[in-house]
Records
---
Amino acid sequence: TQQMAAAMADNPTKPLEYGEDNGLAPSAGATSEAPSRAALASALSEVNGSDKTGSRAPEGHNNTIDTLDRVRVDSSDQPMTTNQGVRISDNQNTLSAGVRGPALLEDFVLREKLTHFDHERIPERVVHARGSGAHGYFECTEAITDITSAAPFQEKGKITPLFVRFSTVAGERGSKDTARDVRGFAVKFYTDAGNWDLVGNNMPVFFIQDAMKFPDLVHAVKPEPHHQMPQAASAHDTFWDFVSLMPESTHMLMWQMSDRAIPRSFATMQGFGVHTFRFVNAEGQATLVKFHWLPVAGTHSLVWDEAVKISGADPDFNRRDLWERIDSGAYPQWDLAVQLFTEEQADAFSFDVLDSTKIIPEELVPLRTIGRMTLNRNPDNFFSETEQVAFCIANIIPGLDFTNDPLLAGRIHSYFDTQLLRLGGPNFHEIPINAPIVQVHNNQRDGFHRQAIFRGRVAYEPNSLAGGCPFQAGMQGFVSVAARNESREGTAKVRAKPEKFAEHYAQARLFLDSQTPAEQDHIAAAFRFELSKCTVPAVRERMVASLRNVSDDLARKVADGLGIKELPAPMPLATRQPPEPEVKRSKFLSLMARPGDGSIAGRKVAIVVGPGVDGAFARQMQQALLEGGAVGRFVGMHIGPVDAGDGSAIDADASTENSPGFLFDALVIPDGNDGLKRDGHLWEFVRDVYRHCKPIVAIGDAREFVTRVLPDGADTRKDKALILDERGSQGAIDQLIQCLGAPRDFSRESDPPRV
Ligand code: HDD
């Protein structure tokens, strides 16, 4: 509870919501060194000056992040009121003419309540409908004033508040979290020079090169229009029909079929700005830049069988994980790194940096870390914050600029446009979660739901009646880079692309060849799964024909899985002389390349507690996990007290029925536990956790049970994540902690799974 309190010091009303000290607070998870919001607020006022008036803070500093406080509502100890603030005497009974008489039209309390309810829903996002948000801050760790005048990067130690929304793309608002899909990674920086939205994904490339194709892509992947199936899945004909006809999507398909499409946690995904942007310094000199978010916890994913099962048992798996990490103080963190390069370098690359289906291999342009993001506060209200937040790729600030990436161009239009419908008019920038921390000054007026009250009679410029205000900022304002002439072939109107855009396979190959053998197997299995759901043979064959341009080995594996005996001829190439790629294998593209800091923070372990369990060991294990920031949950045959072997009681807070084994990162079965071994759920626990290559600890008599349940041929001696030990041994706990913080070892896997 103390840890909870520390983690929640940022929100004084939270303990009340959970009922202070009444035991209803979510179970304490981790400790953290990240500052609480209170500490952050005081750090901000020291570092940034505590200017809450909304006027510009001193140069190089931020206002505080407390601007949302003016709209936060705490109803504890308050009487209920109408929206007009009139106290409501009775919230149960409609006003009627006599107890059995008709309802009266004058009942404004009833009518207001029903009318508001009737209008409660807004359209969901056309893509990325399902998302989870969190507040946090960015801390600059290296000032790069020589490269950009962008506010967050002007001073080492400078803090910029931000809001992040992670999302799946294809599924509807209520769909499952663990769909095989790209994840949105959208960050809104509330800088002291206005809002900057870095609206990226957890994959560094995209399916298409031109925004003209975006509606087609989305129509293809969304549920098919005649019967609205399947939900939150790309495994259907229309998606594969489209992408098999669009060879430019092949590189992205490699990423999407990899385990990156089923992240273990939002906190263990990389994020990417995808497009090439520009940094611009105070002298107006531009440097090309790509943005990367690197999770401090490392990159970790699920396996497909696990993702499928989780989607049934806990469709909110990633959302819950994010919420609990933050609530328990295991704050997710990412380093922000940039690839910086010049136009001349870009010209020499074998690919075009304006093509969003291409990465710049880190071997060509290394990453430079310039700051760290920490997410340390859950939203107070999902709708007000996570649903109403409106990201827009066009929201950039001085020190940044666009490039002529044709995908980016369409995005600059689309985001603002879509919010007009979704949020009902042009004033959505005034919704608190969207409002910048600097005061807005312009002559735009009116529109639905206007909040600001602009004073004076002048709403035009130039004017003399208001002393010329608000005035143009000139070079102090946002200035587009003048020399943005990337169209070297001239400026005559065309609908065409540069030659390098026509090469579609080299980087798909680069990605595939840079994976570990297990990851390559997962990619092949993902293609097999997805294409096996397509009912039209020609679609499956065309996709295999396209894969032949990436790797005959991959095409063969997929074809075998689809019963295609003879490989179709490779799809014709769009370019006769594809340029030779600079890098053919990269150290950085496998999920194993960035295992993280080995910390177990945010991980979840099932500690099985049946009658007769070795309670001392169970408690010791839980304590050790807690110290590392992980949660050890006691899982019994039912929730509530369980009689341990030593006569004490252990309180199980989960059951084998309500929390299946695949929801956990590891399974611990202490000695004792007699009754549980006759619970079929536990057999499935062991099999699933084993099959998904996660650690299992079995102590004393549990060893025999586990070895009996494991599939034939399971290696019980060399498998480091299978920890079988004597009762009373101390080593098992340390061994588990080491395995938990490391990437999974896939050597247990076989395809199909062993019996
Ligand atoms: Fe997009 C939402 C990311 C291409 C049009 N997109 C959306 C979100 C993310 C991305 C993270 C969710 C934002 C949130 O959480 O509210 N989109 C990307 C990336 C792309 C990309 C990384 C390629 C590099 N998007 C893209 C194109 C277009 C759009 C080419 C249209 C021309 N995207 C939209 C949208 C959405 C959106 C329709 C739906 C809801 C919203 O904007 O606010 O406008």
Note: The two ends are 45 Å apart (CA to CA).
---
Amino acid sequence: MNNHIEDSSISRNGNTLILAYDHGVEHGPVDFEPEPESSNPENIFKTARHSAVSCLAVQKGIAEQYYEDYSDEVNLLLKLNGSSDLAHREDYYSPKQCTVKYAVEELGADAVGYTMYAGSVHEDKMWEDFRKVQEEARKYDVPVVMWAYPRGRGIEESDYDGQTDPDLIAYAARLGLELGADMVKVKYPGSQEHMENVVRQTGRTKVVMSGGSKRSDEEFLSDVQTTIDAGANGLAVGRNIFQRENPENILDQLEEIIFE
Ligand code: FBP
């Protein structure tokens, strides 16, 4: 059985641009402050109609209320788990709010996404949650994207130099291959050489770069170009799109870099 993304609707010439819009959960309304109209999901669905966008990643509630109106023009990646900045937790954990069955049968999802916090004291439980997601996704024939974010006490107490250590990013990405993800989403590891190592470690599992906080066009596009030059497959991006006054301009440029 080969990678499930290649023949799926969220891939174009093997590459993908995921427009991520789960920030209302992960960070709260503060992420919408730079462009207040971005708090309205309707505007993000409209942006997602741009030909550069392979799919829009949202939580269940937004999919339920808005997706039907855009399902002809936008592919849906249902983010199955998520966690808010408000929770008081012993360590990083991202609970599941939606099953693959519900995502596909009720919401019309084309793909599903799951955040994995390798290094957390809850890592074992997250592996178990992910196992169920991954096997259910195979049953429904939808690709699984892992948000591969190494975080938590295991990392703090290790010899790795924090969450952005390139070797740690490669390790978290490798877990994606080993645990059955079709695609991993990783933070930019700092250089083309480091991204090449991430790509090497993930084998047939695809790799996309995580957008991160908003930067200048030049800085952001240069990291995306380096990511593609390293052999990775695209981008999962939120704030660097919806915090811009005119997201279409940057999407035009991203389309050229990622798909042409
Ligand atoms: P950005 O491009 O805005 O970084 O979005 C990607 C993403 O993974 C979102 O899906 C998620 O809401 C956010 O980053 C989480 O960021 P972090 O956990 O680094 O605060």
Note: The pocket of 1,6-di-O-phosphono-beta-D-fructofuranose is lined by residues 20, 22-23, 26, 147, 210-212, 236-240 (CB under 6 Å).
---
Amino acid sequence: MLDRISQKFSDLFRSVSGNNRITEQNVRDVVQEIKVALLEADVNVRVVRRFVNRTLEDATGDAVLRSVSPGQMFTKIVHDRLVEFLGDERQDLQLKGPDTVSPILLLGLQGSGKTTTAAKLAARLSREGRKVLLVAADLVRPAAVDQLQVLGERIGVAVHVVDGARDPVAVAKAGLKRAKKELYDTVIVDTSGRMQVDAALMKELQAVKKVVQPVESVLVADSMTGQSAVDIAKEFNEQIGLSGIILSKFDSDARGGAALSLKTITGTPIKFIGVGEKTEDLEPFYPDRIAGRILGMGDVVSLVEKAQETIDEQEALELQQKMAKANFSLADYLDQIQRVKKMGSMESLLGMIPGMQGRVSEEDLNTDELKYEEAILQSMTRVELENYRIIGINRRKRIARGSGTTVYQVNRMLKKFDKMRTMMKKVTKNKKYQAQLMQQL
Ligand code: GDP
């Protein structure tokens, strides 16, 4: 799923996300590469143009170029744009309550996965407690009625079939009548398709829609056909009117071009994705998760948001200056530990960093060590926190007692801190290391 586009974007962003300095030219170069990646992914040209212009607008502003970590900020901007183009918020089906019938019209070309999707949707809605009736009104594809019957039996959903029927409008009408009589609350009408959009099909579907009066008219579009799926959706929307799209075969789509273009071009939201051939392979479509997947990253956005909440730019700058003057004190160290704690567990934080998911466990990070270090620091007096050199053996004993640790642990912490300061002194002349070090804190 989305392998190719995701690979492309991860490579691209790996090069910028760690940068603590980026220039407007850097941004322009990367945006140019994004443009190529999107075009290769078969995203609609108009969508690509809009994407590029908006991203450039947002990313070349001072707020980004001068932020604490412009690389990450830039990544977030691209992520947010992707989410926007994928359709912003998750959009669910808008069905009525159980005391009336909610008809859903499923539309799509032959082979798009319409019949399979009808069953997937029926299975999902009946799992959610709805009483679903499937109506076999695809009378064009010879095996469609049988296929729906077999699937219906498999998922335990009734299928309304009229033997030897030729008129889909009559079948749909009869299906609805039965639903009302037998107190079904949801009717899914599987309509006919064609190899391509033609006038006869549109006329038939318009007539079916008129009798069904659906609360949802959903197009099943084959994700793998890229821009052609977008053209088909546009046509259906103009001629029939759509309220949603189900993107089938998303599991086999390496590029994501249809997903990224559909909302902008048709104005119709993607509500579900088909992710396999089985009846349970239907998932709600979450724009933000798909964007994360495209960028090949963990949840970078929440990470940046969290970091923004806890690290103030001014403070970061002051810290850097302290380090440069080598007067980074134990009090500053305590402050850093508390900041890390405020941002949540180290494990969950690292899980949000690209490429880190599952690689580092809480144990590796030794968060216990941070915990007792915090206790040790909290047992020190203000004077000790400002000048660790005065902490002799008696003070160490008192601190160990006060923090419930041992003198050995206090020694170890102070040694570590001393080493850290030495290292800071060495590297503060090197700006690149400074940034890395700040991140490690
Ligand atoms: P229809 O002509 O539109 O009714 O198409 P079908 O429902 O018969 O589906 C056509 C083919 O696509 C079948 O082989 C399905 O198993 C397959 N298919 C449908 N949805 C998906 C999906 O989400 N993922 C994959 N991998 N295959 C799918």
Note: Strands lie at 102-107, 132-137, 158-160, 186-191, 216-222, 244-248, 270-274, 282-284.
